[in-house]
Amino acid sequence: MNKLLLIVGLVVLFFAQSSYAFKFKPVKGNYSGSIWRLHEIVSEDVMAFSIDYKNNLDRKLTGGIIVLDKNKKTNVRECIDPTSKTYFNIDRCEEIHLGINSRLKEEPENSRRVKKFANTIAQDICEDPILTFGEIKKGGFLSASMMTFIVIKCPKVLANKKIKDEENKRIEEEKKLAEQEAIIQEQEAQAQEQVDAQQKKMETCQAYGFEKGSEPFGQCIFKLMELELEYAKLENETLRLQAQAEQAKLNNQVALSQSLAAQAQASNRDKGLRLQQFGLAMQGIANAFQTPSSMANPKITCQNLGMQMKCW
Known about the structure:
Layout: H1 2-16, E1 27-28, E2 35-40, E3 46-51, E4 61-68, H2 74-79, E5 95-102, H3 109-125, E6 130-133, E7 148-153, H4 155-207, H5 215-250, H6 254-288, E8 302-305, E9 308-311
Helix pairs in contact: 4-5, 5-6
């Protein structure tokens, strides 16, 4: 507390003086027309924005905003921007605290002028501010303990922020719903692909002459499922070898790259061989069950559906 009063006392001293060299250029308040100054007090962590006693509103009063540890005061950073033309972000400031020091000693004159002064300079900070006064002090020139402290709230900014927050919330909810809908649609599409693939298996086995529901028909379906596993394994192996060959090529390992590429080609040929073996297996099943031979010679297709290999 003593440290705080010392700092505030230094701020008050700066409020009262106009002969110091300031780091930032003074600016005129948009509403009050008074000159606001930005001071760095003690260190860069403690700052003040003030109107000194040589103001055009009331020369018995001085006022300012005390910023302690400004890097942690988010609301202060929203309210004040030293690089702007007016110091104040009037469309973003929600709440800030003001301190006023008075040379006046008589009441109710002191209270009346303090309130008038505060209400005027507060409109430099935001539009239609609402002020909550602490105990109004008097005769406290250069006395931190005799400073009147005021909370300034900016209702229009708060209202706009609420509207904006609600709009952002609505947009976020719509985004989540859209993402959920996309997931559902993707899942439905994958499920339909699985159904379609199963239907195509049945059509393929029927094309070989096997009657739906018969034992050879069931064996045909089972062989297609076996083919899916073998084909997927060969597909993964081919991709792995191709990637390793490309990496070896980038590393200038010519012999290794050529060897891996040859292995990838062999793996790829094995996929075609598995398709031929499936056709021979179907002929074997047809002969074993004396199934009438079909004139159809269906072409077997294998492809990835929803990260799974399907053949028909």
